[in-house]
Amino acid sequence: xxxxxxxxxxxxxxxxxxxxxxxxxxxxxxxxxxxxxxxxxxxxxxxxxxxxxxxxxxxxxxxxxxxxxxxxxxxxxxxxxxxxxxxxxxxxxxxxxxxxxxxxxxxxxxxxxxxxxxxxxxxxxxxxxxxxxxxxxxxxxxxxxxxxxxxxxxxxxxxxxxxxxxxxxxxxxxxxxxxxxxxxxxxxxxxxxxxxxxxxxxxxxxxxxxxxxxxxxxxxxxxxxxxxxxxxxxxxxxxxxxxxxxxxxxxxxxxxxxxxxxxxxxxxxxxxxxxxxx
Length: 278
Description:
Blueprint: H1 3-13, E1 19-24, E2 27-32, H2 43-57, E3 64-69, E4 73-75, H3 80-91, H4 99-119, E5 123-128, E6 131-133, H5 134-142, E7 145-149, E8 153-155, H6 169-188, E9 192-193, H7 194-200, E10 205-207, H8 212-225, H9 228-241, H10 246-260, H11 264-277
Parallel strand pairs: 2-3, 3-5, 4-6, 5-7, 6-8, 7-10
Antiparallel strand pairs: 1-2, 8-9
């Protein structure tokens, strides 16, 4: 059995409740929940997280999802025991594992989560309640709105393990920090506290720790107040525009805007505004 097959079997066999979901009408709260291990992304947690995310994004009644961790951490990132065992297996000539096993896990599990977050029409709000490191940080940065408590700490961690930024982190950091800022952040391997992350543009807001989830709820309210079609079309448009030329972005907007006119909510909003300006 390859290392990847072993991890799949371990993940599917783990019956602990490592990912909690609280559904409330048009929104849901997902909590990574193994606090004694700082919510490290074990095989069990990864398969549960993927399953919960898939269920929520396929439900059209769920318009916003908040992603957070059980205190004291958001997520310390990849499971170090898994990383060490995987690296050893690849270098062990008597073991059938190879680098393809690592690729499969990174692509299908870690990459699968960020593709679900970024590729769905559902709005994702990260509520970073403590340390967010490595792949845990990547999951937070993949969300559409990123909030931090005063206790939040953003840790790149990849370099400490001899790894490169992964799971979309290189894309986001270079766009927020520029090449030189992203490279320096990676090279230092240091921590950014909540205020420094806000100054760098990596988080949208910083809140008192006990007020973090209430702030996330406010963003869910903003999503709920918008016509579903508008949010569902704006998310892929804005994500595509990040890599588009100005002309390409203009064309994307033109097609999306025309489609918006087919929604009754546009007429209702226009007539409501007419009444307020009459």
